[in-house]
Protein: N-acetyltransferase SLI1
Organism: Candida glabrata
Amino acid sequence: MVRHLGGIEQYFYQRSSLNLHSCFSVGVELNSLPNRSDFICALRRVVNSHFQLYCNAYKSNNEVVVNPIGEPIKFDDVVDYMDWDTYGEEEINSVFRKYNFEYGVDKPLWKVIVVPKANKMIFATDHLFFDGIATVLFWTELLKSLEELKQDNDLDVDEIIYRPGGSTDSIDQCHPYEKLPIPFSWKVKRPIVKALFTIAPGAVVSQDASIIQFDEYKIPEDYLKKNSNDDGCYQIKNTNRQISLKMSSNKLKVIMKDCKQHHVSFTAYLTAVLYLALGKIPKEKYSGSTIKYEVPMNTRNRISNSGEYSNSYGTFVAGGEFIETLDFERDEWELAQSIHKKIVEKSTTGVMDAINEARLLELVDAKKFMKMKFETTTGPSSTFEVTNLGFQNFSQNEHSKYTVTDAFFNEPQLFTNLITYSVISTPSGGLNCSMAYPEKLDSILCNSVAFLKNKFN
């Protein structure tokens, strides 16, 4: 059976096809790096267990289908060793500029970048087959595979980690969202949206004029390095500031205890702090009366009670969009409680609506939708996005040979969000939050950054 792209996959596919998104990355810092031979053996085991690691998306009869790549994958095809002293802003942005994975070719949609001098490994990937949690699952499985190697492997180990021609039984027949029944209310909405997009597409992609915008940052001129070429593709600058906000394990424990006492999730508390940080911006620097923030939801355990998708790769996300009126005098915990209530409602009773909203892309020309969404934008449609991958120990224990001493999560420059906060926490490294925003806003956001660094420290 041919595997077609689902609506949410079409969104990511068209966004990347137009070069409006290159890749995102989740990395780990280890106590020591595996030798090449062990790395090859462990990676081979993981790659052959998940079709997302050996497939690409190909055009076939005016449709896009998922197929295994037709060429062997060698270790050097997917692992790059970099002679960097560190992995900071310059290196992060260089990854986003360099790794723009191509569809329709016999190459996988991911890379592992190794930085030996910093004991770091970074998994960079396209969004078609991976969300943030899927990358955590990748690292968890790879480290487990390394631990299970019986002995050190010979240096002349076969460097081919995938050979084409195997069984395709592991390829899902469709995206799991497509297996879900469509509620009656959405059966009514779907033909209306389809007709509206045909008759008045501007109404579908319009953005809220009340959301704050900055005169100093405009799209497309401050977002693109180059406008669309003859092939209709763009070129993003990817020159964001990449500010590292760190919170120690001890401080994180204290904050988590405070969150419990106030009956809020850590994500809600963090979102409240990020909201209040914007209050440090001089009022004359922006226009608008509301802040829109996004908190993407992991739907793995929401779409199935059996847990069948708990450890599945793929894109199991749904949009969580919220709007707050500007009021920077609000109490931190009162605001966190309000945000918590909204997030809980959206992630429980509202999650199916969010999924069915994403599925509307099944009905329209996704490429036309994406181009129109971008070309009618003068500024980001969302003030900030918070993606929290949670507290991860990568299934390690005190006897693990390879210990994760830290983890980090980074996102490229986006036209949909002014600021992105990419968060992941580990037992040893505490919390890592990457705050990414356009370099042109550096002086405007400097007081907000100082406020957050003080909060995190």
Observations:
- The first strand starts at residue 3 and ends at 4.
- Residues 30 and 404 are 5 Å apart (CA to CA).
- The chain has two domains: 3-162, 181-456.
